[in-house]
Amino acid sequence: MSENKKKISLFNMLSYGTADLLYSLFNGIFGGLYYIFWEVVVGLDIIIITLAYTIFAVWNIINDPIFGYIADRPRKFWSRLGKRYPWFIIGGIPAILFLAVIFSPPYLDPVDAAWIYFAWILISLCIYELFYTMTQLSHTALFPDKFQLDSERRKGGFWRMLLAVLGTAIGFIIPPLLIDVTNPSSFVSMAWIFVVVNLVIFTASIPGHRESKDLKDRYVREQENRESVSFFHTLKIVVTHKNFMVLILVFLMDGIIAVSLTASIQYVTLYILEEPPSSAILILVPFILAVIVSLFPWLLLSQKMKNNRKMLILGVFLNTIGLLPFMFTQTTIGFIIAAFILGIGGGAIRIGTNPVLADAIDEAVADSGKHIEGSFMGVYTFFTRFSLIAQGWIFAITHTLTGFDPFSPTQTEFAQFGIRLHTALIPMILTLIALVVFALVYDLNPEKTKEIKEKLKELNL
């Protein structure tokens, strides 16, 4: 545990957390604009859009645990380059480029060339996801090793979430200012402007992902003493840990909230408020401000509580109930207030997420006697990626059943109700059910996590 004796500098924490800024920016651009671009701007049938999205999500689900396993397999370069750092670097730049490709299709008739567009979406999405997985999974798998003390995990988690919120702000606020739903080329320009921005951010994140000499030495020791373990045996180790799996359940449902809300904002702006895309800022800014303002008070509460389980329960509950006002408000002012309320809960869940995830991984590592964080994060991502499939079909079904017309600037009241359903009500109900299950099953309290850390020390892990 010599890694713990060296204090992690603020600069290093910020550099590490800058990757969360980048991924949130990715999610803001992709999650916020994918459906509105292909359904409304290009005019492609939503079933074709969702079919491509579903296949992409399945590929996403499959490649995450496989890559996690590959990344954990002993390599000769660990002693020189580190275990996570090389993959983080390899995946970063291609992911940035292919995010732009998704929004840069050729100009074709959306009916006659529907399957050409289908192929464009599917291929660009799958390549993007392959490299995104390399960099993002390597980033998250490094967290438990890099931040081993509870205090450092909370501080590191705080800076990660603060920078992630900043990325969310950039990803949600700036792109709508650069696009015009009547001009497809504006999306292309926006996407390639952000290639430059994303490359700068990625460069800033590199120092925080270079593993220390102590950590590299530990990797080498583990290689020397480690027996070869098959992929399926590793998968079994991961999925048999109830605390880790029930945590995945609640994050899966909360993920449906995130992706549904992200993709719904432009629909709310265009078809409920009947305002241009840039007006989404009026909803997004109060949400982001509330998250930022509430992060530090939630961090102080978390440090005082010293109970990661309770903090996450509180955060998920507030973040879920905060969706309820979106079902009823009719005016811009109402959505501003609703967004601010939701942002307060958003701050709480962002403080509670990383420490609980690290605790669950610690327990599994202590039980298995193996540092296979990449495999854990691969399985974590495997299950949470089902939120993409759920969101896609929630959109497709509600739009079909409620008569949404992408070619009309106005929608019927029933179609507007469908938008509210996939914005708030359906994700809220699913997440509340998962939260009840989590509260009943997850049992890592402060006393138990302390015992786990002591066991890790005894095992020299």
Description:
This protein is mainly alpha-helical. It has a single domain (2-458), classed as MFS general substrate transporter like domains (Growth Hormone, Chain: A), CATH 1.20.1250.20. The protein contains 17 helices and no strands. The longest helix is centred in the C-terminal third of the chain and has 37 residues, at 332-368.
List keywords for this structure.
461 residues; Growth Hormone, Chain: A; 79% helix; mainly alpha
Note the topology.
Elements: H1 10-41, H2 46-72, H3 78-81, H4 85-102, H5 114-146, H6 150-178, H7 184-205, H8 213-225, H9 231-239, H10 242-272, H11 281-305, H12 308-321, H13 332-368, H14 373-384, H15 386-401, H16 413-441, H17 446-458
Helix pairs in contact: 1-6, 1-7, 1-10, 2-5, 2-14, 2-15, 4-5, 4-7, 5-14, 6-11, 6-13, 10-15, 10-16, 11-13, 12-13, 12-16, 13-17, 15-16
The total domain count is: 1
CATH homologous superfamily identity? MFS general substrate transporter like domains
Total strand segments:
0
- Low-confidence region ranges: 1-5
From the N-terminal CA to the C-terminal CA, the straight-line distance is 8 Å
Shape: globular
Largest sheet: none
- Residue share in helix: over 70%
What's the average pLDDT? Answer: 86
Count up the helices. 17
Taken as a percent bin, the fraction of beta residues is: under 5%
CATH class: Mainly Alpha
- Return the CATH topology: Growth Hormone, Chain: A
Q: What series of H and E elements makes up the topology?
A: HHHHHHHHHHHHHHHHH
The value of Rg in angstroms is: 22 Å
Sheet/helix structural class? mainly alpha
The CATH architecture is: Up-down Bundle
